[in-house]
Structure formats: structure tokens, C-alpha cells
Amino acid sequence: MRRKLVLENGATWAGEGIGSDTDSFGEVVFQTGMTGYQEILSDPSYSGQIVTMTYPLIGNYGINRDDFESMNPALKGVIVKEAAVSPSHHLMRRSFDDWLKQIGVAGIAGVDTRMITRMIRENGVMRGAIVYDDADEQEVIDRLKATNPLSEQVKEVSTKSIYANPGQGKRVVLIDYGMKKGILRDLLQLGYDVIVVPYNTSATVILGLSPDGVVLSNGPGDPADIPESEACVQELIGQVPLFGICLGHQLLARACGASTEKMRFGHRGSNHPVRELATGKIAITSQNHGYTISPDSLAKTSLETTHVNVNDGSVEGIRHLHAPAFSVQYHPEASAGPEDAKELFKQFDSMIDEVAGGTHYAKTN
Questions:
Q1: What pLDDT digit, counting tens, does each position of 224-253 carry?
Q2: What is the pLDDT, as a whole number, of residue 358?
Q3: 164 beta partners
Q4: Which SMART domains does this chain map to (predicted)?
Q5: Catalytic residue among 27, 230, 246, 360
Q6: What is the pLDDT of residue 360?
Q7: Which stretches of the chain score pLDDT less than 70?
């Protein structure tokens, strides 16, 4: 099945089709992880995107039953240099190609992923399509240029109802903006009684669940597209301890008056170095985001920067000066990726204890 990749700037690559035989249109991004393709491609934060995998061989250990970050992947397509045709692993249930067919996602193999990645780095992310090799390229380009950016990605990937994951410990409400299952898993491993709620749940309903803390999850797209979520976070600040991750990090910043902006090509990979300003400690982190907090906008808020990206200086962590709330742009659940940032869940747990004991405000004021 011969397919081709067409970008909105007119660049075209011919290759072999994998996965679904349908045409696929989306925002083309690149991911630098050397392993963990199952976790990466099932991450809801890739909603509406076609993911270029920079590692040259994808699918060599197949797809297993357990390493999913979502059971309903939201990506639009995948681009690889080589898709393994004879995968091998004792936990494997199906091949990479079979899995893509099962979930209805189109892919293309046999293309120069290095060139695609370099083009995105130089020109920024752009819209693209995986189509049959006889498709009229100008018609595809015209359709790409006429396509409006997605604005309801969070609505599509968030849970539609409240559900509980009963535990014996402290109660945490996890707001699902496109939550990775790894976040829920780590909270449950700490013994929390976790209640997951949809992205548009009101602060009144959340506080009515009597949480000891609230986690703002990761998710896709532009935080400006979900003003109702921003308003909810604004109401929660000072009422209950908050821990934001990725999109949740951006929403906390916006709720405090900061602004966010789209990055040229984003951070997507499992080897991003982050410096903690207080200690100088470097953590290697897993990341997946196309928007970031505007650093200058933090000056007018009650937030301070706690972490920065070593490569480009972007804001990677913030904390509220007067309320129990902090957030990071990277993924402490590390699915897939290094586990350097796992301690952040313990920091959140300590903050809950401090608030319960009446000591947190004394420490931050």
C-alpha cells in the first residue's frame, strides 16, 4: 500500500502505508523518545496530531496489554523510518501495524524522518496529511491550508462522567483534561482515594467531594481554548492544595494572570533536562507539549518560577507565593521516560499534610 506524506508547505515524501488505509490530516510534530512508543502514541495529549518518531525503528517489541496511557488513542497518524515486521517480546499481544489498524490510525513508513524533523525545527510545526500516492497534491495542500486548528481537543479526550478509584488514604480529585493513566497509577500507588472528574467540572462540585488535594492533569492543545477550566482553577486556588502537570501547569499560570504562547516546535521526548532553581539539581524529564508559559507575564502574578528548561530556558515549574499550589510542565509519572521527577508526587503529599496541619502558609509567606 503506497502512501505519501504531504505538508502544507508543499514538501512531500513517498513511503509504504501502515495501519489504517484511511486518509489522515493533522498537525505534524516530532517525538524524540528512543523507546516507549506504545505509551507515547496512546497519550491523549497527541489529539489531532500526526507524530513523527525520530528513533529509526519502531515496533520491534510489538504492543502489549498493559502499557497504554489511554485505551482510545486520539492521534491522527504516525510517521516512522522503519516499522518492524517481525516483533518479538514475551508480553507482546499484537504487532505495531496490527494495533494501528485496530484503532483506525493511518501511518507511513520508509520516509526520511530526520529530514522531516529538521524541517519542523526550522519552520515550526505545520499541518500535514497521509494520503494515497495518487492523490492530487495541490488539492491536499489546499485542504490543509483551509483546515482550522482544533479547539475542542480537551472535550474529546476528557472523561464524560465522574468516577471513583477507591483507596484508604487521603482523597484527591484528579481533573481529567486528557489524563495519562500513569498519573492515576502513581496516585493510587501512594494510597490515595482518587476521584476523576471531567475537564469542565465546576469548583463547587469539586469542593463538594471534600478533597484533601486536587491534581490538574495533562492534556492536548491550547489552554486558552478551555476558559471554563481556567475559571475553575482560579476558584480552587487557596481552597485546596493544587498540583498541576503539563496542561494543568499552564492552566494554573493562566488562572493567576499569566499568559501562554505556542512554541515553535514544542517539547516532545523523554530526555529534556530541567534545572530546579533553588538547588541547581538537574532532572531528565519526559515532556509532551506545544504551548508554554510566557516568562515575562509571571512578573504581574503571585507566582514564582521554580524550574527552567536547560536547553531553551522555558518555564518548567512554578509555585504560588501565598497559596498551596505548584505545577510542572513535564511528566513526573514518566510514561515513558526517566523517573527523576517521581518525588514531585511526594512533595504534593507533603503539601497536603502541611495544609492539614496548618503549617503551609507560614512556610510560604
A1: 999 999 999 999 999 999 999 999 999 999
A2: 78
A3: 195
A4: CPSase_sm_chain
A5: 246
A6: 60
A7: 360-365
Continuous H helices in the chain: 37-41, 96-103, 113-123, 137-146, 153-157, 181-189, 203-208, 227-236, 247-255, 343-357, 360-364
DSSP strand pairing (260-276 vs 282-293): antiparallel
Considering only CA atoms, which of 332, 289, 290, 281 is closest in space to residue 308? Answer: 281
Residue 316's nearest CA partner among 229, 265, 250 is: 250
Burial of 353 (0-12, 13-18, 19+ CB in 10 A): middle
Annotated binding site for L-glutamine: 45, 219, 221, 247, 250, 288, 290-291
- Burial of residue 47 (number of CB atoms within 10 Å: 0-12, 13-18, 19+): buried
Supply the pLDDT for residue 49: 97
- Round to whole Å and give the CA distance between 318 and 337: 22
Q: Which residue shows C-alpha cell 482560579?
A: 234
Predicted pLDDT at 243: 98
Residue 256 annotated in active site: no
Cβ–Cβ < 8 Å for 79, 140 = no
Query: Measured between alpha carbons, how far is residue 345 from residues 119, 213, 240, 243, 333 in Å?
Result: 37, 11, 16, 9, 9
Q: How far is Cα 22 from Cα 25, in angstroms, rounded to an integer?
A: 10
Residue-range domain boundaries for the chain: 2-146, 153-364
Q: Strand order in 163-165's β-sheet? A: 163-165, 193-198, 171-176, 213-216, 242-245, 325-328, 315-320, 303-309, 260-276, 282-293
The CATH class, in words, for 2-146 is alpha beta
pTM here? 0.95
User: 153-364 domain in CATH 1.10.150.20?
Assistant: no
Per-residue model confidence (pLDDT) at position 65: 96
For the question of residue 246 being annotated catalytic, the response is: yes
Question: Peptide bond preceding 336: is omega within 30 degrees of 0, i.e. cis?
Answer: yes
Same topology, domains 2-146 and 153-364? Answer is no
Q: Are strands 315-320 and 24-31 parallel, antiparallel or unpaired?
A: unpaired
The active-site residue out of 307, 320, 331, 360 is 331
Distance CA 209, CA 14 (A): 53
Q: What is the pLDDT of residue 365?
A: 40
Asked if 331 is an active-site residue, the reply is yes
pLDDT, position 148: 76
